[in-house]
Structure formats: C-alpha cells, structure tokens
What we know:
alpha+beta, 4-stranded antiparallel β-sheet, two-stranded antiparallel ribbon, 6 strands, Structural Genomics Hypothetical 15.5 Kd Protein In mrcA-pckA Intergenic Region, Chain A, 5 helices, disordered N terminus, 40% helix
Amino acid sequence: MTDQDEGRVRLDKWLWAARFYKTRALAAEAVEGGKVQVNGDRPKRARPLQVGDMIRIRLGPYEHTVAVRALSGRRGPASEAAALYEETASSRSAREALAIQLKSLHAVFGPDKGRPTKKDRREIQRLKGRR
C-alpha cells in the first residue's frame, strides 16, 4: 500500500505537485531551510500531509498560507495543481498589497540611460579638464 492509497502524500512531493516549486529537490531544500510550516510546526520533508492541513510557504518576499484540499503525488497541469489547495483570504490580500508596494518601488528606481553617448563623453572629458 502506498502513501497515496492511505490518503497521505509526502510534503515535498505535494509542494512539487501543487507547483510551488519546479523540482522536488527545491521543495525539499525549502522545507529543510525552514521556509515551509505545516500547522505551525517546522516539518521534515517526508512528513505525510492530510487533507485539511494548513501550510505556510515563503517564496521570496511573498508568503502563502494555504489549506490542503486534495492530495496528489503527480505533477499535472496548473489547473489541476490549483485544485490541490485553497489560499486564505488574508494571505491573498497581504500578497497583493506587497506586490503593489514592490511595483511602486521599482517605478521610483528606474534604470539609468545606459552607456554615455559620444556627446556625454566629450562633456565628461571637458569637466575633467583633459581637453
């Protein structure tokens, strides 16, 4: 009998199947690094999940809080992966607020013009007193 037959699947496998991480190795590394919590505890990567578990996942600056709705050890299309979990409303609103804040930060610090033009180089040379 496999874990899926009993209604359980490994945490790292579920995170990979739910498309939070591109590979199982990345999912396992995130769990070992403390970026994932299950029901408020720091789990091991082989911890079996059950339907109803609450998982907190930190991905970069964003934090997802999701409830496990279904179990799968197979990585399928994104539409199937989205059915595996349900994100809490507070988590979604906090993530969207952070995204807006980060976008506004990037607007303030726009990219420079790039390399100086020939005209700019002449002005720099003139200011340095070389011509």
